[in-house]
Amino acid sequence: MYHAGIEQHISSIIEKSVSAVLADLNVKPPFAIHLKAELEIPKDRSHGDLATNIAMKASKAAGIQPLDFANLIKVKLDRECRLHSFKGVIDRVETKHPGFINFFLSKNYLCRILLEIKRRSHNFGRSGIGRRMRLHVEFVSANPTGPLTIAHGRQAAIGDGLANILEFLGYRVVREYYLNDEGTQMNILGNSIRLRYLELLGKAEEFPQDFYKGTYVIDIARAFKKKYGRKFLGAEKIDAFREFGLCWILNDIKKDLKDFGVKFNVWYSQKALMKSGRVERTIAFLKDKGYIYEKEGAVWFKSTAFGDDKDRVVKKTDGNVTYLAPDIAYHLEKYRRGFKKIIDIWGPDHHGYIPRMKAAIQALGFSADSIAVLIVQLATLYRAGQAVSMSTRAGEFITLREVMDEVGKDVARFCFISRRISSHLDFDLDSVKKESMENPVYYIQYAHARIWSILEHGKKAHPAARFDSRLLREPEEIDLLRMLEQFPMIIVLSGKSLEPYIIMQYLQDVATVFHSFYTKHRVISDDPNLTKARIVLVDCVRIVLANGLRLLGVSLPKKM
């Protein structure tokens, strides 16, 4: 049986069994129509390799207790599992209070997974469930008013990792950076550079409190002075300063992201969007649909028609558009470029923006489900046990570049993904620099490097040995087999939930089981066939660790 479809096959026989039980109980559709068998991996290994709670969802329709209903399903499942098409895959099925159905995969099936891993190698876990659907992921999109901070770094690691995972699942992913290259903040940047430029020429003026105070502004002003000398000493307009600053900062952002292993297919300019006339055309389009009206001299979007708590201004009384107007036009462009699913990754200060954007998507004629907005919580940096305060405007922040220089790309990326997207992250610089088994990224990379050492050492050991997976009988070996079998499902779970963290946690578990195996059992021994079986086993562990780390953008060391 082809491994990639095992979960779908189990789900189908569960659904078939549920339907049969409901029929026996004379329960007719529509009760059974919408019952979908979702499988999960139990945290407690004594509860099996896979589990479903479908009995708890269906028992109400049947009018009996969930555990009793689970037992009725089990009778049907036992019969299905004895069929030739499924024989040898499921060892047994158990029910557990309050109504879980647990599946234990057979050892023979688990051993066969090694051949599948070796055959597919770096493609093991890859699937086509995305069906080549065009999918748009927008992330980072930091205003080009300063260097990327660790908050942007976390968004970059999550966005890039998620895009890798979705591509691995067969989606056609486009990664895009939306560049806010005009507007109030860019004007403040231009004025900040101008004032620092005047200081360098001995013509200092008062520096407003809300201007950008970082040392990078002085660096830009110094470069501006070097290029133009005193040419702009009496300039009243800030255009030259603003454009110079934009180019300087954008180049830095692109270099930081490249060194962080993050790539973008498209850099989309807000300035170009505004000049194209698409913003005005989008407002006119919404007006024709009845979702734009004028009140008190301003132009309003009727977002309450789609569940927002109040209507939103898209054009102010002075005729200038608000942030929302170009954002709506930008999202319309995404759909018009053929994307069926849109994923936006934003910072925590944008949480209240979600309802109005969801409203806009629906007003444009698209489903609210066609867009997913992920809010990435902030990362607090700790140094010597003390939290480091950060403010781009005040010039007090730790840049992504500084973090990379101090701990390296791998550690930074791994740590940024080490918590769920919705969880705040505490980033302790001192602890993540330790090259010890307490450091999670070191722990996993060391497992990968240790296996390479074993494989090098075992190249000449017992060349005539025969591979026999039946020799893998130790509890730690069976645990490894179970972990390896889960990898394709882990990738699917991570992609469906849009959580790269799931893969990182899984890799930690695999490394833990491997290190436990290695401390208790010799891979290369005097037994030729056992040696061969264990070499194949640990090589499959290496392949899975490598595939997972590659998706997270973390390197694969052969020596440490």
Please explain how this structure is put together.
- The protein has helices spanning 6-24, 54-62, 66-81, 107-120, 150-168, 184-200, 215-228, 239-259, 270-276, 278-288, 324-336, 354-363, 400-407, 409-416, 429-432, 440-457, 475-497, 501-520, 528-551, and strands spanning 39-40, 50-52, 90-96, 100-105, 134-138, 172-179, 266-269, 292-295, 298-301, 312-315, 341-346, 371-375, 379-383, 386-387, 425-428.
- The chain is of the alpha/beta class and 560 residues long.
- Among the domains are: 3-105, Arginyl tRNA synthetase N-terminal domain (Gyrase A, domain 2, 2-Layer Sandwich); 435-551, Isoleucyl-tRNA Synthetase, Domain 1.
- The strands form four sheets. It has a five-stranded parallel β-sheet with strand order 7-6-5-11-12, with helices on both faces. A four-stranded antiparallel β-sheet has the order 1-2-4-3. A three-stranded antiparallel β-sheet has the order 8-9-10.
- Strand 8 and strand 9 (298-301) form a beta hairpin.
- It is flat.
- The model has no long low-confidence stretch (mean pLDDT 91).
